[in-house]
């Protein structure tokens, strides 16, 4: 549970960082676009001033004139503060509105930025934040659904055990069983199991409990799906097992199978000979 919450929080942090990086990139692009527009307008204004004809004649001269200090009109900055999604970070964007304050600029053609582009970019950021929020909610719902599925059966040991009231006999030692994986004869496996449990064949709870130790693979998964309501005795378990795997029977080897039997790279010749003799005893029809 804690690991899943940490994963959700980590994903949210990564999404927030991604959104913040995209927002910073968009703001930098807006600033660059505004700067390029200002430079283009300044270039046009300078060219216009150079081409204008002077308003005085060629022989006109100014007498006793004092140079007037240049007056640069003040600009009114507009600060646009983008609202980042779940982050206390704001990057102000100052856009000068009005006449340029730099000497030599054309005072008759002030540059006014297109605020529609800025508004469109703000709208895209809001849409991106909404998509991110929806994605986070979707991930949280998926995790909640997974948690509900994992714990729908409960975690009480008594609910999960087929024999919750089992009491082990005094001096009972756990036995080793040949494992059944669902691909061999089911009847032969039950016979082998009961013979290994000789001395406890009248203890149904003990038989039910330790039968799972003789199963592996798909057979063990089948056992874990059983419930206490289905299995009330060893007979119920044996019948359910035969119903599930009764169609699986051992096929006796024939002479061709024995002839094609090869030595494994991981076994010695003595082991190979022993395995060959065991199979030869099972061949049908029997060898002379």
Automatic annotation (TrEMBL):
Domain of life: Eukaryota
Disordered, as annotated region: 1-32
Residue ranges that the Swiss-Prot or TrEMBL entry lists as coiled coil: none
Retrotransposon gag domain sequence ranges: 211-284
Comp. bias regions, Basic and acidic residues: 1-16
Composition skew (Low complexity), residue ranges: 17-28
Name by which UniProt lists this protein: Retrotransposon gag domain-containing protein
Organism: Gossypium hirsutum
């Amino acid at each position: 549970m804690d690991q899943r919450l940490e994963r959700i929080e980590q994903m949210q942090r990564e999404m927030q960082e991604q959104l913040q990086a995209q927002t910073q990139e968009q703001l930098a692009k807006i600033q660059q676009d505004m700067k390029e527009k200002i430079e283009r307008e300044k270039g046009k204004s300078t060219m216009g001033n150079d081409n204008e004809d002077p308003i005085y004649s060629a022989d006109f001269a100014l007498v006793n004139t004092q140079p007037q200090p240049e007056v640069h009109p003040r600009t009114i900055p507009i600060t646009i503060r983008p609202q980042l999604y779940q982050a206390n970070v704001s990057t102000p964007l100052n856009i000068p509105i009005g006449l340029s304050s730099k000497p030599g600029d054309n005072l008759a053609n002030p540059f006014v930025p297109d605020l529609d582009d800025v508004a469109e970019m703000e709208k895209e950021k809001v849409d991106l934040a909404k998509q991110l929020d929806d994605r986070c909610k979707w991930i949280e719902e998926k995790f909640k659904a997974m948690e509900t599925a994992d714990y729908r059966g409960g975690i009480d040991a008594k609910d999960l055990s087929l024999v919750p009231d089992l009491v082990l006999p005094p001096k009972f030692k756990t036995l080793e069983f040949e494992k059944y994986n669902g691909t061999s004869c089911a009847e032969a496996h039950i016979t082998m199991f009961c013979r290994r449990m000789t001395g406890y064949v009248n203890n149904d709870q003990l038989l039910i409990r330790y039968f799972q130790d003789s199963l592996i693979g798909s057979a063990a998964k089948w056992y874990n799906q059983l419930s206490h309501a289905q299995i009330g005795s060893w007979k119920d378990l044996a019948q359910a097992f035969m119903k599930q795997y009764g169609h699986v029977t051992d096929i006796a080897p024939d002479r061709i199978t024995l002839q094609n039997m090869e030595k494994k790279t991981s076994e010695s010749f003595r082991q190979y000979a022993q395995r060959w003799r065991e199979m030869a005893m099972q061949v049908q029809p029997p060898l002379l």
